[in-house]
Design a protein that fits this description.
Layout lengths: L5 E2 L23 E8 L3 E9 L10 H5 L2 E3 L2 E5 L5 E4 L1 H14 L7 H14 L11 E10 L11 E11 L10 E5 L17 H5 L2 H9 L4 E5 L7 E4 L3 E6 L2 E5 L9 H12 L4 E4 L3 H9 L3 E8 L3 E10 L2 E4 L7 H14 L10 E4 L6
Parallel strand pairs: 1-3, 9-10, 9-16, 13-14
Antiparallel strand pairs: 2-3, 2-8, 4-7, 5-6, 5-7, 6-18, 7-8, 10-11, 12-13, 12-15, 15-16, 16-17
Helix pairs in contact: 2-3
Bound molecules: pyridoxal-5'-phosphate (PLP).
């Protein structure tokens, strides 16, 4: 795919938001990347255009049967003014895995990363500079063919929109309380749990809403068959430190292949801290807690990087970890990954991709 990417610059640039109150995902930059797919023609018309609403046919298939995939990644501004992306090739790999599952045509990951770099260069003034802030990047694909039949669409739009986001932790990294979900399930093997697709999120809202009503910030998902084995926490992967060893659920067919998850595993191996991917039951976690061996637990994902867990509530049992405080290892992993992302620490893993800014406009 040797396509040109055309660039149309917005005539009026909007005011940049107040960096102390960015929140998440409500403010968007001046431009967006788009390309179209038409059967027989492939992906075409790659372009950067002013951020604007879309016009779609009400019968566009995405509205009816949810044929859509997305990604989530971030760009960071370093202290010396460079722009870093974190492992963007992993996001492209995963996007194509999601595409495969949803019968959406494959994209050329290298080409999309080139388009993304161009888009970031055009909107570079939107990357916030305040401590802990970043530019959140949302690539996504929707089925646009106007048709009410149930079949893979023949037309799609691929887009990238970007949003300056605030620090996930306003007052430093801090632990959350988690409700172990025993009624609803997120995914089953053979379903779409491994794909980043809207339907997984739509089906998680009910449990999330009930948990929030009880003042828990997320749910811990158990497997969809026996409701016994741990899968994920909210929309993050999950890790436990038990008696000096770190464990995380193995990628069993219903768990999202998190980029942060993979990075944490690599980092632990690099530090010679024992880490294993295996099946973990909720009983094992409760038992380890009773024996005083459950040292730490944390979620991993692009938004928070590391989200320490201070408490689990399961049935009638309340499991408080590390006195409800952030564990030492959780903090060390958080500091290291965010340090690499922001260019404050060496990157021995080759995780960082630089965005050239000279070629913009
Ligand atoms: C995106 C996502 C994650 C985290 O993946 P990262 O690549 O680390 O951001 C975990 N679980 C679910 C369900 C997700 O959608």
């Amino acid at each position: 795919m040797t396509q040109q990417i055309t660039v149309q610059i917005a005539e009026t640039k909007r005011d940049k938001p107040d960096q102390s109150n960015l929140g998440f995902g409500r403010i968007f930059t001046d431009h967006m990347f788009m390309m179209n797919f038409t059967e027989g023609k492939g992906w075409h018309d790659a372009r950067i255009v002013p951020y604007q609403p879309l016009t779609l046919d009400p019968s566009a298939m995405v509205f009816h049967y949810g044929q859509t995939v997305f990604e989530g990644m971030k760009a960071y501004l370093t202290e010396d003014g460079q722009i870093f992306l974190f492992r963007p090739e992993k996001n492209m790999e995963r996007l194509n895995r999601s595409n495969d599952r949803l019968c959406i045509p494959q994209i050329d990951g290298d080409f999309v990363i080139e388009g993304l770099k161009k888009l970031i260069a055009v909107d570079r003034e939107w990357i916030p500079t305040a401590e802990g802030t970043s530019l959140y990047i949302r690539p996504f694909i929707i089925a646009t063919e106007p048709f009410l039949g149930v079949a893979p669409a023949k037309n799609y739009i691929f887009m990238i929109i970007m949003s300056p986001v605030g620090s996930y932790y306003k007052e430093g990294i801090s632990p959350v309380k988690i409700l172990v979900e025993s009624e609803f399930v997120r995914a089953v093997k053979g379903g779409t749990g491994e794909a980043k697709t809207g339907g997984n999120y739509a089906s998680s809202l009910k449990a999330q809403e009930l948990a929030t009503g009880k003042e828990y910030s997320q749910v811990l998902w158990l497997d969809g068959v026996e409701k016994k084995y741990i899968e994920e926490v909210g929309s993050m992967n999950v890790f436990f430190k038990i008696n000096g060893e770190v464990v995380t659920p193995a990628l069993n067919g219903s768990i999202l292949h998190g980029v942060t998850r993979d990075s944490v595993i690599q980092l632990l191996k690099h530090w010679n801290i024992p880490v294993s991917e295996r099946r973990i039951s909720i009983d094992e976690i409760a038992q380890a807690h009773r024996e005083g061996k459950l040292e730490e637990a944390f979620g991993t994902g692009t938004a928070a990087v590391i989200s320490p867990i201070g408490e689990f509530f399961w049935g009638s049992e309340q499991l408080v970890l590390n006195g409800g405080k952030t564990g030492e290892l959780s903090k060390r992993i958080y500091d290291t990954i965010t340090g690499i992302q922001k260019g404050k620490l060496e990157d021995p893993f080759g995780w960082v991709t630089k965005v050239p800014v000279s070629e913009s406009k």
